[in-house]
Specification:
Length: 49
């Protein structure tokens, strides 16, 4: 699995989003899913005539 290095401010922001000792990989996966869902919504929203 690839490793990434985060600066302190990013870790603090992730900590603020975590719930019940949620693992970092869980919160990052959730954020990616939200991003992808919003991207699809925006993409399909432009297709309506």
């Amino acid at each position: 699995m690839p490793q990434i290095h985060l600066d302190e401010s990013t870790v603090e922001r992730l900590d603020a989003l975590r719930r019940d000792d949620e693992e970092y990989d869980e919160i990052v996966t959730e954020l990616i899913n939200i991003y992808e869902a919003e991207e699809l919504t925006l993409f399909h929203g432009g297709d309506v005539e």
